[in-house]
Structure formats: C-alpha cells, structure tokens
Amino acid sequence: MYSLTRFFRKRAGDTDIFCLQEVCNSPQAVVDQRHPDEHVHGPLFDKISAELKGFEGSFAYFDDDPNRMSLAMFARQDVPLKTIEDFIVYRPAQPKETGSAVFSARKLQYITLDLNGREVLIANYHGLWNNGPKTDTPERIDQSKRIKQFLDGFDGPKILCGDFNLLPETESLQILEKGMRNLVKDYKIQSTRTPLYRHYENPSEPNFADYILVSPDVKVKRFEVLSDMVSDHAALFLEFNY
C-alpha cells in the first residue's frame, strides 16, 4: 500500500486524470471474507481519495453488489468535467468473486470534458478475465462490440484505456482498434507488465493486457510505459492534445 500511495504523490503533479481498475470500496471484513488468502485492501477508493487532494473521484458501483471490485477515475478539480458515467458491458450468468477467481460483471466508465468548446471522451475499461489465456471467447467479442458501438456513437476525440485482458492479435482487440490508433502497437511496446507479474519470466505467457486506443483526432504528445512498480500491471501515461 505504501508503494501505491507513494506513486500517487509522485505522479499527481503532472497528471490530470487517473484511470484505475480492480479497485475496492468496501469494508475490510467483506473483502477478507471474499479473498481470505490474498492481501486486498477493502477501503482502497477512500485511501486513494485521501491521497489525491484536489481531485474528484468516482467509483463505478454495481447496483446488485456495491462491494464488488470495480473501476475508479480521479480527475483534477480544475479539469472542465461535464459528466462521469458508467454502464455494464458484460454480465455472467453465475457471477463469482471468491479468492483469486473473479468472474464478475464488467463496466465501462467514462468521463466527458469540455475542452475549448469541444467534447472529449475518456473511457476506462477492465475486460473480462476467465482464469485462462487472454484469447478470444464469445463473451469477449460481445464485450468489444458493445464498447465499439458506444464509442462510434460519440462524435469527437475519444480515448479508451485500461486492462483489456486481451492479447494483441485477438479479434476482440481488432474490433476495438477499428478507426482507432493502438498506441501499444504504434510505439512497439514489448510489455505492459512488471516483474511482479507471476508469469513475467515465462516466454510462453505474453506480457500484454493493457492498452490505450485513441481516435485519429487525438494528437499524442507523449506516451510511455512508466517504470513505477506498484502492481503486476505497468502504468501507462498519455499526454495529448486534439
């Protein structure tokens, strides 16, 4: 937890928006019951909120289970924020969140900004995990189609980021890439994982999961995989104009 809070202290000064996945916002007793053999911090959203003074935080609650892990976004208070919304893109027939097996509904969380009179969309996404390879499944393809339909309905610069749980060659990712730039591919990024990933040294386990996609009208000023080691996923940084 110290490494995570130190990360926000270090990065808050040059970051306007943080997009986070796998965030809890629940009592510690509930999390301990669900994840008895893991070190999961229950009131994580509150912890980050206390650290990010001057930011407005939003947690994507699930109505049927407010204690479920979900997405969170933090926007600097002087950012011209218009809306913060979310919606479900996948719901399993039998959800499960016990131990390390998390087969749960998935949401897309997004904000719209008014930048000099033009709306800009930034969407935060954590794709379905099925305790197997990050390859195509009917559920993942359906997920991507739902997200793509939403993105295509927005007329303006747009950014989609997060842990997609997809390999670069999947059809599920290609659906999302249509009409968008995949910065991980464009910049020839070799890994979006850190040495904390349990398969990091295994050449048969590709170190890809996280992406940032941008529409053609987004002008990338800086994109990089940050070296901070606070998760088994590396943090991705984007500075843009439009």
Q: How many E-type strands?
A: 13
Q: Enumerate how many helices there are, as a single number.
A: 6
Largest sheet: 6 strands, mixed
The CATH topology comes to: Deoxyribonuclease I, Chain A
> Which architecture would the CATH scheme give at its second level?
4-Layer Sandwich
Apparent shape: globular
- Mean pLDDT across every amino acid position: 92
Strand pairing plus helix content: what structural class? alpha+beta
Low-pLDDT stretches are: none
| Estimated helix fraction | 10-25%
- CATH fourth-tier homologous superfamily: Endonuclease/exonuclease/phosphatase
The total domain count is 1
Order of helices and strands: HEHHEEEEEEEHEHEHEEE
DSSP strand content: 25-35%
Distance between the termini: 35 Å
CATH C-level label: Alpha Beta
Radius of gyration: 17 Å
Which helices and strands, and how do they pair?
Blueprint: H1 2-11, E1 17-23, H2 28-34, H3 44-51, E2 55-59, E3 70-76, E4 81-90, E5 96-98, E6 101-103, E7 106-115, E8 118-126, H4 138-152, E9 158-163, H5 171-177, E10 181-182, H6 183-186, E11 210-214, E12 219-225, E13 236-241
Parallel strand pairs: 8-9
Antiparallel strand pairs: 1-3, 2-3, 4-7, 5-6, 7-8, 9-11, 10-11, 12-13
